[in-house]
Amino acid sequence: MTATLDCATLTTREINVTIKRLAGEGESEIHLLNPEARHSLGVAVFDPVKIVVEGTAGYFCGAMADGPTFHILGNTGWSAGECMLNGEIVVERNAASSTGASIRGGTVVVKGHAGARTGISQKGGLIVIGGDTGYMTGFMMQRGTMIICGDAAEGLGDSMYAGTIYLGGEPRELGSDAVLQEVTAEDRRFLEDTLARYGLSERRALSDFKKIGSGGKLHNFSKADFEMWRLAM
């Protein structure tokens, strides 16, 4: 079943309470009309429902989700999918800063560009960016995977502890202790399958992708490496 919710005359709380009620009643798909870039749409939804935002969402859309699928037809503000545990968010246009911050699972896809600190403190899951990303993307990444089809600004992968970043374009500058690694045949198969799934296969040739991971030098503090730590901080 599909439900339609006109957000124009509702508060954000009323919208979210209605989403959870409809999902609990068994609605499989909910369309949000006139979202008007509201902040915190669809936060903490724990049901496997599809939520279509017919326009642009504000900050924290889909944050703390565990199970739903979001399809945002416009842009989204800061921190889409923050702290998501499971589910999927697909943004048709662009996303602002801190997209996918601290996600633990699930998938966040931005078909356009994403802003600064994309995937900051990522703890699992998958983030896919069809265009470019801003500075400090992947900062303090701890687990998970990120695919960027375009270029990345300064500080890519800065202070990452683990996880993998695939970059199709060029990094303006790698962050502290972020290093290039060998791209394997398995990596290319993963990239091919993932990009095809989200209609991004034409964005970048598989041979263009570079693999970036942690150099491991910042895992444990040592006074002998004080200068390296000073530069990292």
Structural overview:
There is one protein chain. The protein has three helices and 13 strands, in the order βαβββββββββββαβα. The chain has a single domain (2-232), classed as 3 Solenoid (Pectate Lyase C-like), CATH 2.160.20.60. It starts with a strand and ends with a helix. The protein is 14% helix and 28% strand. 45% of the residues are buried. α1 links the parallel β1 (2-6) and β2. By secondary structure, the protein is α/β, with parallel strands linked by helices. The strands form two sheets. Strands 1-2-3-4-5-6-7-8-10-13-12 form an eleven-stranded mixed sheet, with helices on one face.
Secondary structure category: alpha/beta
Assign an overall shape.
elongated
Q: In the CATH classification, which architecture applies? A: 3 Solenoid
Radius of gyration: 18 Å
Strand % is 25-35%
* CATH topology group: Pectate Lyase C-like
Q: How far apart are the termini? A: 52 Å
Features:
233 residues, alpha/beta, Pectate Lyase C-like, two-stranded parallel sheet, 13 strands, 28% strand, elongated
